[in-house]
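Inputs:
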Amino acid sequence: MNRKKTSGLLQQLVFVGPSTLFFTVIIVIPFLLGLYYSFTSWNGVSGEVTWVGIDNFKQILTKDPDFGKAFWFTVRFTVIGIILTNLLGFFLAYFLTKPLKTRNVLRTVFFMPNVIGGLLLGFIWQFIFVKGFAAVGSATGWHFFNLPWLGDATTAFWGIVIVFVWQTAGYLMVIYISSINNIPKDIIEAAEIDGASRLQILKTVIMPLVMPAVTVCLFLAISWSFKMFDLNLSLTKGGPFRSTESVALNIYNEAFQNNRYGLGTAKAIIFFVVVAVITSLQVKLTKSKEVES
Amino acid sequence: MEVSKKYRFGTLATEIVMVVIALLFLIPFYFLFVNSVKTFGDLLTNAASWPKSFEWHNYAKAWDMTNFPTAFKNSLIVTVFSNLLLALFSAMAAYRMVRHNSRFNRFLFAVFVAAMVIPFQSIMIPLVKVMSSLGLMNSIPGLIVSYLGFGVPLSVFLFHGFVKSIPLEIEEAARVDGTNTYGTFFRIVLPLLKPMFVTVIILNTLWIWNDYLLPSLVLQSADLRTIPIATFAFFGQFTKQWDLALPALVLGILPVIIFFLAMQKYIVEGITQGAVKG
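Outputs:
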Protein backbone atom coordinates (compact mmCIF):
# COMPACT_ATOMS: atom_id res chain seq x y z
CA MET A 1 0.00 0.00 0.00
CA ASN A 2 2.77 2.37 1.00
CA ARG A 3 4.78 1.47 -2.09
CA LYS A 4 1.79 2.30 -4.26
CA LYS A 5 1.52 5.67 -2.62
CA THR A 6 5.20 6.45 -3.20
CA SER A 7 5.00 5.42 -6.83
CA GLY A 8 1.92 7.63 -7.26
CA LEU A 9 3.82 10.54 -5.78
CA LEU A 10 6.76 9.83 -8.05
CA GLN A 11 4.48 9.78 -11.08
CA GLN A 12 2.94 13.08 -10.09
CA LEU A 13 6.42 14.53 -9.76
CA VAL A 14 7.68 13.15 -13.07
CA PHE A 15 4.63 14.07 -15.12
CA VAL A 16 3.47 17.34 -13.62
CA GLY A 17 6.71 18.47 -11.97
CA PRO A 18 8.61 20.05 -14.88
CA SER A 19 5.66 22.12 -16.14
CA THR A 20 4.79 23.29 -12.65
CA LEU A 21 8.39 24.19 -11.87
CA PHE A 22 8.90 26.34 -15.00
CA PHE A 23 5.47 27.90 -14.62
CA THR A 24 6.17 28.81 -10.99
CA VAL A 25 9.60 30.30 -11.61
CA ILE A 26 8.67 32.24 -14.74
CA ILE A 27 5.09 33.34 -14.06
CA VAL A 28 3.96 32.86 -10.46
CA ILE A 29 7.00 34.26 -8.65
CA PRO A 30 7.41 37.33 -10.89
CA PHE A 31 3.69 37.98 -10.62
CA LEU A 32 3.75 37.92 -6.82
CA LEU A 33 6.98 39.94 -6.71
CA GLY A 34 5.34 42.45 -9.04
CA LEU A 35 2.46 42.86 -6.61
CA TYR A 36 4.98 43.63 -3.87
CA TYR A 37 7.21 45.94 -5.93
CA SER A 38 4.24 48.01 -7.04
CA PHE A 39 4.10 49.31 -3.45
CA THR A 40 7.80 50.24 -3.40
CA SER A 41 10.13 52.80 -4.94
CA TRP A 42 12.43 50.15 -6.41
CA ASN A 43 14.67 51.50 -9.18
CA GLY A 44 15.86 48.12 -10.44
CA VAL A 45 19.53 48.86 -9.97
CA SER A 46 20.21 49.29 -6.25
CA GLY A 47 19.26 46.58 -3.81
CA GLU A 48 17.32 49.16 -1.86
CA VAL A 49 13.57 48.64 -1.98
CA THR A 50 11.55 51.11 0.07
CA TRP A 51 7.91 50.57 0.90
CA VAL A 52 5.87 53.55 -0.25
CA GLY A 53 2.33 52.24 0.18
CA ILE A 54 -0.11 53.30 -2.50
CA ASP A 55 2.00 56.29 -3.58
CA ASN A 56 2.78 54.76 -6.98
CA PHE A 57 -0.89 54.21 -7.75
CA LYS A 58 -1.74 57.71 -6.58
CA GLN A 59 0.92 59.19 -8.78
CA ILE A 60 -0.16 57.16 -11.84
CA LEU A 61 -3.80 58.09 -11.48
CA THR A 62 -3.32 61.77 -10.63
CA LYS A 63 0.05 62.98 -11.88
CA ASP A 64 0.79 60.94 -14.98
CA PRO A 65 -1.17 62.27 -17.98
CA ASP A 66 0.95 60.17 -20.35
CA PHE A 67 -0.31 56.94 -18.84
CA GLY A 68 -3.90 58.13 -19.20
CA LYS A 69 -3.14 59.12 -22.78
CA ALA A 70 -1.62 55.70 -23.47
CA PHE A 71 -4.72 54.04 -22.05
CA TRP A 72 -7.04 56.17 -24.12
CA PHE A 73 -4.99 55.45 -27.24
CA THR A 74 -5.08 51.72 -26.51
CA VAL A 75 -8.84 51.73 -25.95
CA ARG A 76 -9.54 53.65 -29.17
CA PHE A 77 -7.16 51.45 -31.10
CA THR A 78 -8.68 48.27 -29.65
CA VAL A 79 -12.27 49.25 -30.44
CA ILE A 80 -11.55 50.29 -34.03
CA GLY A 81 -9.01 47.53 -34.61
CA ILE A 82 -11.24 44.64 -33.51
CA ILE A 83 -14.25 45.91 -35.46
CA LEU A 84 -12.31 46.36 -38.70
CA THR A 85 -10.29 43.17 -38.49
CA ASN A 86 -13.36 41.08 -37.68
CA LEU A 87 -15.39 42.65 -40.49
CA LEU A 88 -12.62 42.06 -43.01
CA GLY A 89 -11.88 38.57 -41.69
CA PHE A 90 -15.53 37.58 -41.94
CA PHE A 91 -15.92 39.23 -45.34
CA LEU A 92 -12.95 37.28 -46.72
CA ALA A 93 -14.16 34.03 -45.17
CA TYR A 94 -17.70 34.48 -46.51
CA PHE A 95 -16.52 34.87 -50.09
CA LEU A 96 -13.71 32.34 -49.85
CA THR A 97 -16.15 29.60 -48.85
CA LYS A 98 -17.82 30.05 -52.23
CA PRO A 99 -16.65 27.75 -55.05
CA LEU A 100 -13.98 30.08 -56.45
CA LYS A 101 -11.21 28.64 -58.65
CA THR A 102 -8.51 30.70 -56.92
CA ARG A 103 -9.86 29.99 -53.45
CA ASN A 104 -6.84 28.20 -52.01
CA VAL A 105 -4.28 30.63 -53.37
CA LEU A 106 -6.30 33.55 -52.07
CA ARG A 107 -6.54 32.04 -48.60
CA THR A 108 -2.76 31.65 -48.59
CA VAL A 109 -2.26 35.27 -49.63
CA PHE A 110 -4.60 36.68 -47.00
CA PHE A 111 -3.07 34.63 -44.23
CA MET A 112 0.56 35.26 -45.12
CA PRO A 113 1.08 38.61 -43.31
CA ASN A 114 0.19 36.87 -40.08
CA VAL A 115 3.19 34.57 -39.94
CA ILE A 116 5.56 37.54 -39.92
CA GLY A 117 6.24 39.03 -36.52
CA GLY A 118 4.88 42.46 -35.62
CA LEU A 119 8.35 43.93 -35.24
CA LEU A 120 9.45 43.20 -38.81
CA LEU A 121 6.03 44.14 -40.18
CA GLY A 122 6.25 47.52 -38.50
CA PHE A 123 9.60 48.22 -40.16
CA ILE A 124 8.33 47.09 -43.56
CA TRP A 125 5.31 49.36 -43.30
CA GLN A 126 7.39 52.25 -42.07
CA PHE A 127 9.05 52.17 -45.46
CA ILE A 128 5.72 51.85 -47.27
CA PHE A 129 4.12 54.76 -45.44
CA VAL A 130 7.10 57.02 -45.84
CA LYS A 131 8.45 56.13 -49.29
CA GLY A 132 5.85 53.89 -50.94
CA PHE A 133 2.82 56.08 -50.26
CA ALA A 134 4.75 59.15 -51.38
CA ALA A 135 5.62 57.46 -54.68
CA VAL A 136 2.02 56.38 -55.29
CA GLY A 137 0.86 59.84 -54.27
CA SER A 138 3.06 61.65 -56.76
CA ALA A 139 2.09 59.19 -59.52
CA THR A 140 -1.66 59.41 -58.97
CA GLY A 141 -2.05 62.75 -57.24
CA TRP A 142 -4.49 61.15 -54.79
CA HIS A 143 -4.71 63.15 -51.59
CA PHE A 144 -4.91 60.01 -49.46
CA PHE A 145 -1.35 59.00 -50.35
CA ASN A 146 0.03 62.49 -49.95
CA LEU A 147 -1.00 62.79 -46.30
CA PRO A 148 1.92 63.05 -43.85
CA TRP A 149 1.71 59.35 -42.98
CA LEU A 150 3.01 58.56 -39.47
CA GLY A 151 3.90 62.27 -39.24
CA ASP A 152 0.96 63.45 -37.15
CA ALA A 153 -1.20 61.90 -34.46
CA THR A 154 -4.13 61.06 -36.75
CA THR A 155 -2.23 59.45 -39.60
CA ALA A 156 0.00 57.59 -37.15
CA PHE A 157 -3.07 56.17 -35.41
CA TRP A 158 -4.66 55.05 -38.68
CA GLY A 159 -1.31 53.79 -39.91
CA ILE A 160 -1.12 51.38 -36.98
CA VAL A 161 -4.75 50.38 -37.52
CA ILE A 162 -4.10 49.62 -41.21
CA VAL A 163 -1.10 47.42 -40.45
CA PHE A 164 -2.90 45.68 -37.58
CA VAL A 165 -5.90 44.83 -39.77
CA TRP A 166 -3.67 43.73 -42.64
CA GLN A 167 -1.77 41.46 -40.26
CA THR A 168 -4.61 39.89 -38.30
CA ALA A 169 -7.61 39.65 -40.65
CA GLY A 170 -6.22 36.50 -42.30
CA TYR A 171 -5.99 34.68 -38.98
CA LEU A 172 -9.60 35.46 -38.15
CA MET A 173 -10.55 34.51 -41.71
CA VAL A 174 -9.20 30.99 -41.11
CA ILE A 175 -11.37 30.63 -38.01
CA TYR A 176 -14.46 32.03 -39.74
CA ILE A 177 -13.93 29.74 -42.76
CA SER A 178 -13.87 26.65 -40.57
CA SER A 179 -16.97 27.87 -38.77
CA ILE A 180 -18.88 28.57 -42.00
CA ASN A 181 -17.83 25.20 -43.41
CA ASN A 182 -19.29 23.53 -40.33
CA ILE A 183 -22.79 24.82 -41.11
CA PRO A 184 -24.78 21.86 -42.44
CA LYS A 185 -25.36 22.31 -46.18
CA ASP A 186 -29.01 21.20 -45.97
CA ILE A 187 -29.93 24.14 -43.72
CA ILE A 188 -28.72 26.60 -46.34
CA GLU A 189 -30.34 24.60 -49.15
CA ALA A 190 -33.64 24.53 -47.28
CA ALA A 191 -33.50 28.31 -46.91
CA GLU A 192 -32.75 28.66 -50.63
CA ILE A 193 -35.72 26.47 -51.54
CA ASP A 194 -37.91 28.60 -49.28
CA GLY A 195 -36.90 31.52 -51.48
CA ALA A 196 -34.61 33.33 -49.05
CA SER A 197 -32.24 35.81 -50.70
CA ARG A 198 -28.51 35.51 -50.20
CA LEU A 199 -28.54 38.45 -47.83
CA GLN A 200 -31.35 36.88 -45.81
CA ILE A 201 -29.44 33.61 -45.61
CA LEU A 202 -26.36 35.46 -44.43
CA LYS A 203 -28.32 37.33 -41.77
CA THR A 204 -30.68 34.66 -40.48
CA VAL A 205 -28.79 31.41 -41.07
CA ILE A 206 -25.05 31.98 -41.29
CA MET A 207 -24.59 34.80 -38.79
CA PRO A 208 -26.29 33.11 -35.82
CA LEU A 209 -24.47 29.84 -36.51
CA VAL A 210 -21.02 31.43 -36.55
CA MET A 211 -21.55 33.20 -33.22
CA PRO A 212 -19.20 30.80 -31.39
CA ALA A 213 -16.48 31.77 -33.88
CA VAL A 214 -17.28 35.42 -33.29
CA THR A 215 -16.64 34.88 -29.57
CA VAL A 216 -13.26 33.35 -30.30
CA CYS A 217 -12.30 36.01 -32.85
CA LEU A 218 -13.31 38.93 -30.64
CA PHE A 219 -11.37 37.37 -27.80
CA LEU A 220 -8.25 36.99 -29.93
CA ALA A 221 -8.51 40.46 -31.48
CA ILE A 222 -8.98 42.16 -28.12
CA SER A 223 -6.07 40.28 -26.66
CA TRP A 224 -3.78 41.21 -29.60
CA SER A 225 -4.73 44.85 -29.82
CA PHE A 226 -4.86 45.59 -26.13
CA LYS A 227 -1.42 44.10 -25.54
CA MET A 228 0.10 45.53 -28.73
CA PHE A 229 3.79 46.21 -28.33
CA ASP A 230 6.01 45.06 -31.24
CA LEU A 231 4.10 46.81 -34.00
CA ASN A 232 3.86 49.96 -31.94
CA LEU A 233 7.57 49.96 -31.20
CA SER A 234 8.75 49.42 -34.75
CA LEU A 235 6.17 51.50 -36.64
CA THR A 236 5.96 54.72 -34.62
CA LYS A 237 7.88 54.14 -31.36
CA GLY A 238 4.79 55.71 -29.78
CA GLY A 239 5.30 58.97 -31.63
CA PRO A 240 4.84 61.61 -32.74
CA PHE A 241 4.95 63.19 -29.27
CA ARG A 242 3.80 59.97 -27.54
CA SER A 243 0.43 60.25 -29.32
CA THR A 244 0.47 56.57 -30.34
CA GLU A 245 2.03 55.06 -27.24
CA SER A 246 0.24 51.89 -26.17
CA VAL A 247 -0.06 50.92 -22.51
CA ALA A 248 2.42 48.10 -23.00
CA LEU A 249 4.97 50.48 -24.49
CA ASN A 250 4.34 53.01 -21.72
CA ILE A 251 5.06 50.38 -19.06
CA TYR A 252 8.18 49.30 -20.90
CA ASN A 253 9.50 52.86 -21.14
CA GLU A 254 8.74 53.60 -17.50
CA ALA A 255 10.77 50.65 -16.30
CA PHE A 256 13.54 50.20 -18.84
CA GLN A 257 14.04 53.77 -20.09
CA ASN A 258 13.28 55.81 -16.95
CA ASN A 259 14.48 53.11 -14.54
CA ARG A 260 11.44 53.61 -12.34
CA TYR A 261 10.74 49.94 -11.74
CA GLY A 262 8.39 50.44 -8.80
CA LEU A 263 6.21 52.78 -10.83
CA GLY A 264 6.45 50.45 -13.82
CA THR A 265 5.26 47.44 -11.85
CA ALA A 266 2.37 49.45 -10.44
CA LYS A 267 1.32 50.31 -14.00
CA ALA A 268 1.75 46.66 -14.94
CA ILE A 269 -0.61 45.61 -12.14
CA ILE A 270 -3.24 48.13 -13.26
CA PHE A 271 -2.82 46.84 -16.81
CA PHE A 272 -3.30 43.25 -15.63
CA VAL A 273 -6.49 44.08 -13.72
CA VAL A 274 -7.99 45.86 -16.73
CA VAL A 275 -7.09 43.03 -19.11
CA ALA A 276 -8.56 40.45 -16.73
CA VAL A 277 -11.80 42.39 -16.33
CA ILE A 278 -12.25 43.03 -20.07
CA THR A 279 -11.51 39.41 -20.94
CA SER A 280 -13.98 37.94 -18.48
CA LEU A 281 -16.69 40.47 -19.38
CA GLN A 282 -16.24 39.83 -23.07
CA VAL A 283 -16.41 36.04 -22.73
CA LYS A 284 -19.52 36.32 -20.58
CA LEU A 285 -21.24 38.71 -22.98
CA THR A 286 -20.67 36.78 -26.19
CA LYS A 287 -21.39 33.45 -24.51
CA SER A 288 -24.84 34.72 -23.56
CA LYS A 289 -25.43 35.81 -27.17
CA GLU A 290 -24.63 32.30 -28.37
CA VAL A 291 -27.33 30.77 -26.22
CA GLU A 292 -29.92 33.21 -27.52
CA SER A 293 -29.29 32.37 -31.14
CA MET B 1 -30.44 27.26 -67.03
CA GLU B 2 -31.06 30.94 -66.49
CA VAL B 3 -30.29 30.61 -62.80
CA SER B 4 -27.01 28.77 -63.25
CA LYS B 5 -25.79 31.31 -65.80
CA LYS B 6 -26.52 34.16 -63.40
CA TYR B 7 -24.82 32.24 -60.63
CA ARG B 8 -21.73 31.68 -62.74
CA PHE B 9 -21.53 35.36 -63.53
CA GLY B 10 -21.85 36.17 -59.87
CA THR B 11 -19.07 33.76 -58.99
CA LEU B 12 -16.81 35.22 -61.64
CA ALA B 13 -17.44 38.75 -60.36
CA THR B 14 -16.68 37.61 -56.80
CA GLU B 15 -13.54 35.92 -58.04
CA ILE B 16 -12.31 39.07 -59.75
CA VAL B 17 -13.03 41.28 -56.75
CA MET B 18 -11.24 38.87 -54.42
CA VAL B 19 -8.20 38.65 -56.67
CA VAL B 20 -7.99 42.44 -56.74
CA ILE B 21 -8.16 42.56 -52.93
CA ALA B 22 -5.47 39.89 -52.77
CA LEU B 23 -3.21 41.97 -55.01
CA LEU B 24 -3.75 44.93 -52.69
CA PHE B 25 -2.73 42.66 -49.81
CA LEU B 26 0.46 41.73 -51.63
CA ILE B 27 1.55 45.27 -52.51
CA PRO B 28 3.65 45.69 -49.34
CA PHE B 29 5.69 42.66 -50.39
CA TYR B 30 6.15 44.18 -53.85
CA PHE B 31 7.46 47.42 -52.36
CA LEU B 32 9.72 45.54 -49.99
CA PHE B 33 11.28 43.27 -52.57
CA VAL B 34 11.59 45.71 -55.45
CA ASN B 35 13.28 48.36 -53.36
CA SER B 36 15.57 45.91 -51.61
CA VAL B 37 17.55 45.42 -54.82
CA LYS B 38 17.68 49.08 -55.91
CA THR B 39 20.55 51.49 -55.57
CA PHE B 40 19.91 54.12 -52.92
CA GLY B 41 19.45 56.79 -55.58
CA ASP B 42 17.00 54.71 -57.62
CA LEU B 43 15.03 53.99 -54.45
CA LEU B 44 14.75 57.66 -53.51
CA THR B 45 13.66 58.74 -57.00
CA ASN B 46 10.73 56.39 -57.27
CA ALA B 47 9.88 53.71 -54.74
CA ALA B 48 7.03 52.32 -56.85
CA SER B 49 8.94 51.59 -60.04
CA TRP B 50 10.61 48.37 -61.17
CA PRO B 51 14.38 48.43 -60.37
CA LYS B 52 16.63 49.92 -63.05
CA SER B 53 19.30 47.42 -62.07
CA PHE B 54 19.36 44.54 -59.60
CA GLU B 55 21.89 45.27 -56.89
CA TRP B 56 22.16 41.85 -55.29
CA HIS B 57 25.17 42.95 -53.29
CA ASN B 58 22.70 44.89 -51.07
CA TYR B 59 21.86 41.44 -49.75
CA ALA B 60 25.49 40.43 -49.30
CA LYS B 61 26.07 43.57 -47.23
CA ALA B 62 22.96 43.11 -45.11
CA TRP B 63 23.81 39.43 -44.64
CA ASP B 64 27.25 40.30 -43.25
CA MET B 65 26.25 43.36 -41.26
CA THR B 66 23.34 41.73 -39.42
CA ASN B 67 25.46 38.62 -38.97
CA PHE B 68 22.51 36.75 -40.37
CA PRO B 69 23.85 33.18 -40.06
CA THR B 70 24.39 33.63 -36.30
CA ALA B 71 20.97 35.23 -35.78
CA PHE B 72 19.32 32.47 -37.80
CA LYS B 73 21.14 29.78 -35.83
CA ASN B 74 20.15 31.36 -32.50
CA SER B 75 16.51 31.68 -33.54
CA LEU B 76 16.52 28.07 -34.70
CA ILE B 77 18.05 26.72 -31.49
CA VAL B 78 15.66 28.68 -29.29
CA THR B 79 12.59 27.71 -31.31
CA VAL B 80 13.42 24.01 -31.68
CA PHE B 81 14.43 23.31 -28.09
CA SER B 82 11.67 25.41 -26.53
CA ASN B 83 9.15 23.63 -28.72
CA LEU B 84 10.29 20.09 -28.06
CA LEU B 85 10.55 20.47 -24.30
CA LEU B 86 7.37 22.51 -24.05
CA ALA B 87 5.31 20.01 -26.02
CA LEU B 88 6.70 17.03 -24.10
CA PHE B 89 6.33 18.51 -20.59
CA SER B 90 2.87 19.89 -21.34
CA ALA B 91 1.62 16.61 -22.75
CA MET B 92 2.91 14.76 -19.69
CA ALA B 93 1.33 17.22 -17.28
CA ALA B 94 -1.99 17.23 -19.13
CA TYR B 95 -2.06 13.43 -19.23
CA ARG B 96 -1.49 13.09 -15.51
CA MET B 97 -3.99 15.83 -14.71
CA VAL B 98 -6.75 14.17 -16.73
CA ARG B 99 -6.08 10.61 -15.61
CA HIS B 100 -5.43 11.47 -11.98
CA ASN B 101 -8.11 14.01 -11.32
CA SER B 102 -7.15 14.84 -7.73
CA ARG B 103 -8.13 18.02 -5.95
CA PHE B 104 -4.56 19.30 -6.26
CA ASN B 105 -4.46 18.68 -10.00
CA ARG B 106 -7.82 20.37 -10.52
CA PHE B 107 -6.51 23.38 -8.61
CA LEU B 108 -3.29 23.41 -10.62
CA PHE B 109 -5.19 23.26 -13.89
CA ALA B 110 -7.40 26.15 -12.81
CA VAL B 111 -4.28 28.17 -12.02
CA PHE B 112 -2.82 27.40 -15.46
CA VAL B 113 -6.02 28.51 -17.17
CA ALA B 114 -6.28 31.67 -15.09
CA ALA B 115 -2.65 32.55 -15.86
CA MET B 116 -3.44 32.73 -19.56
CA VAL B 117 -5.04 36.10 -18.86
CA ILE B 118 -1.84 37.65 -17.49
CA PRO B 119 -0.25 39.90 -20.12
CA PHE B 120 3.48 39.43 -20.59
CA GLN B 121 4.10 43.11 -19.91
CA SER B 122 2.54 42.73 -16.48
CA ILE B 123 5.30 40.48 -15.23
CA MET B 124 8.28 41.33 -17.43
CA ILE B 125 9.86 43.74 -14.93
CA PRO B 126 10.13 41.39 -11.94
CA LEU B 127 10.86 38.53 -14.34
CA VAL B 128 14.15 40.16 -15.27
CA LYS B 129 15.02 40.28 -11.56
CA VAL B 130 14.09 36.64 -10.95
CA MET B 131 16.05 35.51 -13.97
CA SER B 132 19.16 37.42 -13.06
CA SER B 133 19.17 36.05 -9.52
CA LEU B 134 18.93 32.53 -11.01
CA GLY B 135 21.76 33.27 -13.46
CA LEU B 136 19.48 32.81 -16.46
CA MET B 137 20.13 36.21 -18.01
CA ASN B 138 22.05 36.65 -21.24
CA SER B 139 21.97 32.96 -22.08
CA ILE B 140 20.13 30.90 -24.68
CA PRO B 141 19.20 28.16 -22.16
CA GLY B 142 17.83 30.90 -19.91
CA LEU B 143 15.65 32.15 -22.73
CA ILE B 144 14.43 28.62 -23.42
CA VAL B 145 13.53 28.17 -19.74
CA SER B 146 11.42 31.31 -19.86
CA TYR B 147 9.61 30.13 -22.99
CA LEU B 148 8.83 26.90 -21.14
CA GLY B 149 7.27 28.91 -18.33
CA PHE B 150 5.23 31.18 -20.58
CA GLY B 151 4.17 28.39 -22.92
CA VAL B 152 2.98 25.90 -20.31
CA PRO B 153 -0.52 27.32 -19.66
CA LEU B 154 -1.84 27.26 -23.24
CA SER B 155 -0.04 24.05 -24.20
CA VAL B 156 -1.28 22.14 -21.13
CA PHE B 157 -4.76 23.51 -21.77
CA LEU B 158 -4.77 22.26 -25.37
CA PHE B 159 -3.43 18.80 -24.45
CA HIS B 160 -5.84 18.57 -21.52
CA GLY B 161 -8.85 18.86 -23.82
CA PHE B 162 -7.38 16.32 -26.21
CA VAL B 163 -6.43 13.67 -23.63
CA LYS B 164 -10.00 13.72 -22.33
CA SER B 165 -11.21 12.54 -25.73
CA ILE B 166 -8.93 9.47 -25.74
CA PRO B 167 -10.88 6.40 -24.60
CA LEU B 168 -9.54 4.87 -21.42
CA GLU B 169 -9.98 1.30 -22.76
CA ILE B 170 -6.84 1.53 -24.88
CA GLU B 171 -4.71 2.27 -21.85
CA GLU B 172 -6.45 -0.32 -19.73
CA ALA B 173 -5.64 -2.99 -22.30
CA ALA B 174 -1.98 -2.01 -22.13
CA ARG B 175 -2.03 -2.07 -18.36
CA VAL B 176 -3.53 -5.57 -18.31
CA ASP B 177 -0.60 -6.61 -20.48
CA GLY B 178 1.68 -5.45 -17.64
CA THR B 179 2.88 -2.11 -19.01
CA ASN B 180 3.53 0.47 -16.29
CA THR B 181 2.32 4.09 -16.37
CA TYR B 182 5.46 5.42 -18.02
CA GLY B 183 5.39 2.78 -20.73
CA THR B 184 1.69 3.37 -21.30
CA PHE B 185 2.24 7.08 -21.72
CA PHE B 186 5.28 6.96 -23.96
CA ARG B 187 4.30 3.97 -26.10
CA ILE B 188 0.49 4.16 -26.24
CA VAL B 189 -0.69 7.67 -25.39
CA LEU B 190 2.03 9.80 -26.94
CA PRO B 191 1.45 8.50 -30.49
CA LEU B 192 -2.28 9.11 -30.07
CA LEU B 193 -1.58 12.75 -29.16
CA LYS B 194 0.13 13.41 -32.49
CA PRO B 195 -2.55 15.72 -33.96
CA MET B 196 -2.43 17.92 -30.88
CA PHE B 197 1.38 17.91 -30.96
CA VAL B 198 1.18 19.40 -34.43
CA THR B 199 -1.23 22.10 -33.26
CA VAL B 200 0.80 22.99 -30.16
CA ILE B 201 4.10 23.06 -32.05
CA ILE B 202 2.72 25.22 -34.86
CA LEU B 203 1.20 27.77 -32.48
CA ASN B 204 4.32 27.92 -30.32
CA THR B 205 6.66 28.13 -33.32
CA LEU B 206 4.94 31.18 -34.77
CA TRP B 207 4.99 32.81 -31.34
CA ILE B 208 8.57 32.02 -30.33
CA TRP B 209 10.18 32.60 -33.73
CA ASN B 210 8.66 36.08 -34.04
CA ASP B 211 8.91 37.15 -30.41
CA TYR B 212 10.89 40.31 -29.79
CA LEU B 213 10.23 41.58 -26.29
CA LEU B 214 11.27 38.60 -24.16
CA PRO B 215 14.60 37.91 -25.92
CA SER B 216 15.33 41.64 -25.99
CA LEU B 217 15.08 41.66 -22.19
CA VAL B 218 16.99 38.43 -21.62
CA LEU B 219 19.79 38.55 -24.20
CA GLN B 220 22.41 41.29 -24.24
CA SER B 221 25.42 39.93 -26.14
CA ALA B 222 25.47 40.59 -29.89
CA ASP B 223 26.39 36.99 -30.67
CA LEU B 224 23.27 35.68 -28.91
CA ARG B 225 20.80 37.80 -30.91
CA THR B 226 17.80 36.15 -32.52
CA ILE B 227 16.47 37.42 -35.86
CA PRO B 228 13.99 39.99 -34.48
CA ILE B 229 16.61 41.46 -32.12
CA ALA B 230 19.32 41.53 -34.77
CA THR B 231 16.91 43.29 -37.13
CA PHE B 232 15.92 45.80 -34.48
CA ALA B 233 19.54 46.61 -33.63
CA PHE B 234 20.44 46.91 -37.31
CA PHE B 235 17.44 49.11 -38.05
CA GLY B 236 18.24 51.42 -35.16
CA GLN B 237 21.73 51.85 -36.51
CA PHE B 238 20.83 52.39 -40.16
CA THR B 239 17.50 54.21 -40.05
CA LYS B 240 16.66 55.59 -43.48
CA GLN B 241 19.52 53.57 -45.03
CA TRP B 242 16.82 51.68 -46.88
CA ASP B 243 19.18 49.93 -49.32
CA LEU B 244 20.59 48.09 -46.30
CA ALA B 245 17.50 47.91 -44.11
CA LEU B 246 15.17 46.44 -46.74
CA PRO B 247 17.35 43.46 -47.71
CA ALA B 248 17.82 42.78 -43.99
CA LEU B 249 14.04 42.73 -43.60
CA VAL B 250 13.63 40.36 -46.56
CA LEU B 251 16.22 38.02 -45.02
CA GLY B 252 14.38 38.29 -41.71
CA ILE B 253 10.98 37.28 -43.07
CA LEU B 254 12.16 34.68 -45.57
CA PRO B 255 12.58 31.71 -43.17
CA VAL B 256 9.13 32.09 -41.67
CA ILE B 257 7.49 32.60 -45.09
CA ILE B 258 9.14 29.40 -46.35
CA PHE B 259 8.05 27.58 -43.20
CA PHE B 260 4.50 28.85 -43.75
CA LEU B 261 4.31 27.83 -47.42
CA ALA B 262 5.68 24.37 -46.62
CA MET B 263 3.50 23.77 -43.55
CA GLN B 264 0.43 25.73 -44.60
CA LYS B 265 -1.98 22.84 -44.23
CA TYR B 266 -0.85 22.15 -40.68
CA ILE B 267 -0.78 25.82 -39.75
CA VAL B 268 -4.40 26.31 -40.82
CA GLU B 269 -5.40 23.14 -38.96
CA GLY B 270 -3.43 24.19 -35.91
CA ILE B 271 -5.10 27.58 -35.76
CA THR B 272 -8.57 26.14 -36.16
CA GLN B 273 -7.88 23.51 -33.49
CA GLY B 274 -6.34 26.05 -31.14
CA ALA B 275 -9.24 28.43 -31.66
CA VAL B 276 -11.90 25.80 -31.08
CA LYS B 277 -10.30 24.86 -27.79
CA GLY B 278 -9.47 28.40 -26.79
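Remarks. Residues 242-277 of chain B form the longest helix (36 residues). Chain B touches chain A through 90 residues (CB under 8 Å).
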